[in-house]
């Protein structure tokens, strides 16, 4: 009998058993001590919900828009590097599940399936996440490829000019395809379903890069690729250049400070994603949900504010929306579903989250996702202001 999936943790447990340790660890890591990674999740638990009763709950709707696009709920799939290593053809499968559920899919630059692969297997536009490389021609070609594939938003990541250190990836020798060492082979031999699927696909390299970037025949290691190719000089001037080059909807990802949110507004972005890269970059930064209200206060009336980091349930989505996020992104939560059971698993993740959001709305006395607000929450005193800028430059 197939397992009964009632929450995202159920998918996580199956995912853990099915996927090689190297890729499981990649997903489950934050940088250095992982404080920010842990707090992204645990800070959601500090926020409680206000139960309201005797409210007509019939005819509820979680539907809204993100940058003008209709979405079935305020949730998009976040860009996740190496998704096609978690399950063969992972990006295609996740994009199909997102399309069926009526939410946007965002393809990472560091994906295994290419922009063209995903476009060929989907019917609705997806979003493309861009990393800025030193090679400007290559960046321009990526932008052109995204445009040609019909992508309707560019998600430009600003918090990864250099890669944060994740201890396990270094110890495991993370690469795509995986390097064959005695330890990795021994582990992969226990992951039969994963391996059989992987043998049936040709997509085992960084599909947007290999064969497209000059001189790159086999970009095996994420760490070496980022160290050599990512542009550490990325600044607001370059953001402006990319905005001009793209000319379409632009979402800036990795904003965690009100000052930077104001800069994003000045360059004319359509939305920002309050994010610390899932706790994978600057360990010691505050969680996304804790920074969200301050950033909403600073720019929320002029630009759409989205958030990611720690979203594992519909209750988390509700809390973020009530604090002013127009949309949220799930990364790890959809990878659990994908690794557990492919497209069906991503569909299950989205369905679990949609139901949780819908039921929580009802029990909070709300029928329309647009009516959610701070009045639905009980937030500890000091949730926003406990940490202050320190010193004379603060
Ligand atoms: C890349 O986006 C990563 O966080 O590994």
Automatic annotation (TrEMBL):
NCBIfam families given in the database record: PRK11197.1
Record bears the keyword Flavoprotein: yes
Species whose genome carries this gene: Jannaschia ovalis
Enzyme class label: oxidoreductase
Lineage summary: Bacteria, Pseudomonadati, Pseudomonadota, Alphaproteobacteria, Rhodobacterales
Domain named FMN hydroxy acid dehydrogenase: residues: 1-382
Obligatory cofactor(s): FMN
One protein family per Pfam: FMN_dh
Superkingdom assignment: Bacteria
Similarity comment: family membership: Belongs to the FMN-dependent alpha-hydroxy acid dehydrogenase family.
InterPro entries: Aldolase_TIM (IPR013785), Alpha-hydoxy_acid_DH_FMN (IPR012133), FMN-dep_DH (IPR000262), FMN_HAD (IPR037396), FMN_hydac_DH_AS (IPR008259)
PANTHER family (UniProt xref): 2-HYDROXYACID OXIDASE 1 (PTHR10578:SF107), S -2-HYDROXY-ACID OXIDASE-RELATED (PTHR10578)
Molecular-function annotations in GO: oxidoreductase activity
Protein name in the entry: Alpha-hydroxy acid oxidase
EC number(s) from the headed UniProt entry: 1.-.-.-
Record's keyword terms, sorted: Flavoprotein, FMN, Oxidoreductase
